[in-house]
Amino acid sequence: MARPATKTTKATYRCSECGWTTPKWVGRCGECQAWGSVSEIGAVSIRTAAATHVERPAVPIGQVDARRAEARSTGVGEFDRVLGGGLVAGAVVLVAGEPGIGKSTLLLDVAAQVAQAGGTVLYVSGEESAAQVRVRAERIGAIADRLYLASETDLSTLLGQVEAVKPDLLVVDSVQTISSVEVDGSAGNVSQVREVAASVIAAAKRRHMATLLVGHVTKDGSIAGPRVLEHLVDVVVQFEGERHSRLRLVRAVKNRYGPTDEVGCFDLSDVGIVGLADPSGLFLSSRDSEVPGTCVTVTLEGRRPLVSEVQALMDQTTATNPRRTTSGVDHNRTAMTLAVLHKHAAQPVDKHDAYIATVGGARLTEPAADLAVAIAIASSLLEKPVPSGTVAFGEVGLAGEVRQCTGLQRRLMEAARLGFRRAIVPAGTRAQGQLPDGIQVLEVTHVGRAVGIALDL
């Protein structure tokens, strides 16, 4: 005889920012770390469900059909790279990014590619009318007979459209604009987002329908809404890029079906968004002569090597505290590199304002860019250019030593492929494997030695 369900009531407190709940009041949310956002929501029912009849009994793992988890290409190669080969039937992908960065344009292109390949696609927009989406589709060449458009903000109507169209791919733009009449509050609040996401995910799993959800971000760049949204979906994709740059980077921060260290590169223009199989040219300046204050490095975005250029301008000053301005590089690491050059390489950085930036809107966040930053600064101070065809990468320690970095072979192969003839790298690089042909590898152990080799001192 089954044990009947029991029911109790208990006071609960909830964070107004992220929806995190706790049985007792706390001053700081344990999930989003916001202060003063936890308030009592009254007594809630806590139910204990009884055992019920099993309709789909568990089966041995060897008998499970794995073909349903095979990825199918979306027709957009760079997006497939991030997803791990393509979309899996029943998978739910959350695409997050700042407003105007190109999320809707990319997903409309993906929807058209899938529809042109024979799949049925339903594109539901809660932010634009169907006519507005049609105009954008014409501009980027995303017109397909099997691509259906709907402008809906009600969850029940959205699910009704899914039942009527029976799509292979569903695109919801965006999850914060859809609301349910069964839940109190306006669209976009914690309860609404949780209910909408749960209902759409349940429909996707039941119908084996791949789903792309567009999500908003907060001021600090994190995904808006409750953190449970990120836990419920299968893949979380982050859209990155500078508003004034054409380059867009797409990376997976969570992926149940593939790696999370792949990055897709796209070029956003007036005619749409195009994948870049070789984006390194965007990060290099085009000039005919060598100029002081520049150095080229190779960074790793996930597993993908990208060649970037660092520029430095050192301007003499009489101020007690020289200015330190950076763009595209880590400000704190640059300040440490300046101190190391002053202490261990005898460079008079304390009498100069320092302006360090990257070309093409690239962001260099890994320590391997330290050596290129140091060489660019020294080149500007000494007003001596780095010879063309030179590339440098390595982490600079506070004692002036040049340390190893990951992916040395991939970095060298990318540099050799693009025609660089000389590479300044940390000591021990040769011992890690075969070096590519056509490039001279110069190992250094100290930043002062690296500056001397780079500038032919």
UniProtKB/TrEMBL annotation:
Cross-referenced Gene3D superfamilies: 3.30.230.10, P-loop containing nucleotide triphosphate hydrolases
Residues the entry annotates as binding ATP: G97, E98, P99, G100, I101, G102, K103, S104
Motif placement: RadA KNRFG motif: 254-258
Every RecA family profile domain range: 68-217
SMART domains cross-referenced by the UniProt entry: AAA (SM00382)
Region feature (Lon-protease-like): 353-457
InterPro entries reported for this sequence: AAA+_ATPase, DNA_repair_RadA, P-loop_NTPase, RecA_ATP-bd, Ribosomal_Su5_D2-typ_SF, Ribsml_uS5_D2-typ_fold_subgr, Rubredoxin_2
Pfam families membership: AAA_25, ChlI, Zn_ribbon_LapB
Keywords: ATP-binding, DNA damage, DNA repair, DNA-binding, Hydrolase, Metal-binding, Nucleotide-binding, Stress response, Zinc, Zinc-finger
Keyword Coiled coil: no
Primary role: Plays a role in repairing double-strand DNA breaks, probably involving stabilizing or processing branched DNA or blocked replication forks.
Domain-level remarks: The middle region has homology to RecA with ATPase motifs including the RadA KNRFG motif, while the C-terminus is homologous to Lon protease.
Family membership: Belongs to the RecA family. RadA subfamily.
Name of this protein: DNA repair protein RadA
Organism of this sequence: Arsenicicoccus bolidensis
Gene from which this protein is expressed: radA
